Amino acid sequence: MQAWFEGFKHQFELNFIQRSRWKFITTGLGNTLLITLFSLLLGLVIGVIIAGVRSTYDKTAATARPTFGRKVLGFFNGLCKVYLTVLRGTPVVVQLMIICLVIFAWSDNGVALASLAFGLNSGAYVAEIIRGGIMSIDNGQFEAGRSLGFNYVQTMQHVVLPQVFKNVLPSLMNEFIALLKETSVAGYAAVRDLTYGGNTIAGQTYNFFMPLIAVALIYLALVMTLTWLVGKVERRLRSNDH
Amino acid sequence: MTTDVLIRVEGLEKHFGGGSIHALNGVDAEIRRGEVVVVIGPSGSGKSTFLRCLNLLEMPSAGRITFEGVDITDPKVNINRHRQKMGMVFQHFNLFPNMTVLKNMTCAPVTLRKKTKEAAEATAKQLLERVGLLDRADAYPNQLSGGQKQRIAIVRALCMEPDVMLFDEPTSALDPEMVGEVLDVMKQLAREGMTMVVVTHEMGFAREVGDRVIFMDGGRIIEQGSPEAVFEHPENARLKEFLGKIL
Ligand SMILES: Nc1ncnc2c1ncn2[C@@H]1O[C@H](COP(=O)(O)OP(=O)(O)OP(=O)(O)O)[C@@H](O)[C@H]1O
Ligand SMILES: [Mg+2]
Fold first, then answer.
1. Do the Cβ atoms of A149 and B140 come within 8 Å?
2. Is position A1 within any domain?
3. Domain assignment present for A5
């Protein structure tokens, strides 16, 4: 027992204390959180825009007149469909590498590029979550709003979206959790995230066990915290469910 | 009752499914101010489509609808402004589940008519009082019975001070014991002189408060007249058959 403990202590000092190797973990964690946060924000913006275009096009199909504006909307709707197909039809790690190593090969701002890559990808999934939320609202809600004299945007703003928000918030938070774990492939494009940090230590100490277990535990703690939060929000939403 | 025409419908057609389904095949009609018009007919005859075309919830495929002298089928017309004057009540109530009764009623007047919250709430409470639901002002729709929901839906539309009220089978989704309370509100409204277009299977209501009954079949108006003429002396064979089934 004593010997085992001595060995553990030695490994710990080698991997985390010596040469301040713990800094690989902390900077990596910082970058992982930054990438997750920025790509979440970007993903939300992209997702809201795409969901807006797609559901407006579908919702107004029945009553639209074939005006110029309708054609423009149709064009953007097609564009959004292509975006969704491509971004959801290819692995995110390939998208990441194309962005970091091909399109922006001249830049070495790994965190920004990874945020861009994961944000563009997440946007596609967020768009479908929100669009699903909008489409799941009974069309009667929409018609009631319009029959009172609200225009399309007002109906969305006052009647539909508040209901959508409640419905999709848990799904969006789960997307956030998935995103956090997904960013662990950032290292493929030499972006120094948490996983990359653990890997760097392992490469220096020729010891994989400890750095990778540490990395795993940190992800687990983050995910469990966020999952707990989602549960809390869900209960909260249900308790004032009308 | 004055005789000026509130809504004039000319050559109204509505096609669905890329033209394969002809829901309306050339409907001409007039709704006069203060009139209660009851629309009857078999399922699929186009009653709902006709009603929903009146406020352009369905976009007509052809024809013209003139409301208060304005051709609202003209693409340049701002339909939202005219819809404020056309209240609509749906079979399934369509109350906003995330708002209280009071908010359901004041949301549109405050946003669209620029009423103050206090003024809108005062109006709403007066209307709630009239339909006997003042004590439910702070309830949410899922805390109400079907009959209560529909009465709220009616006064929600009234809050916009409409010039006409359109009803699409307002009592069809209700348990039988709740039909009466909703019809009572509608009768009261009719007595106060509201112009109403009502799609319904409630023939008692049609007889009692209807000024005119329109019988539709196959997307056309087949016969129309006073309740007495339509119910007691029907001429068209299909109307006779229809009345034979439901009376
Ligand atoms: N959105 C739609 N898309 C396709 N077809 C439709 C649509 N709405 C109505 N129809 C069709 O148009 C015809 C008329 O329908 P409508 O709902 O106006 O009839 P109705 O007289 O109201 O019938 P009911 O008594 O069953 O409510 C029917 O054949 C119906 O299937
Ligand atoms: Mg119908």
1. no
2. no
3. no
